[in-house]
Amino acid sequence: MDVSRWETHTLLANESEREQKPMMSIIHYQLALAAAQQLEPLQGTRDEFEELLTIKVVSCHNLAAFWRNAGDSEYELKYLQLASEQVMALILQCPRKECDTFVESIGCCKSALIEFLKRHPNPIVAQQVENITVSSQCELIARFKLH
Question: Is 71 helix (H, G, I), strand (E, B) or coil?
Fold first, then answer.
């Protein structure tokens, strides 16, 4: 799996953010996500699936963080949801269901969603999740409508 295109765009996006060039940053983050979406596991090994999962989740979380910093919670949530979808799609492909990395990644996505809910515009929702600190308490998420 050749990840050089993904790495290049991710580094250029980070550099553009540091230089306060948001348009270039978002372009490169989007290109990095597109490159991640095109990656396919060649041998289907555990290491390859873990690397692919990490790349796809990181790409989504980079975009979610970009939109959070830009003050757009709607796009932030969309990319957090996409990260969760990436995890679920890869879990179905993995021949080893006991992989710790997949479980950790799901927790990562749930933790990001909890952090998003803590800033929810409805103060009742935000107050209900303000004390959740670990993703093992994520069953509360099901009670909330995010729209």
Answer: coil
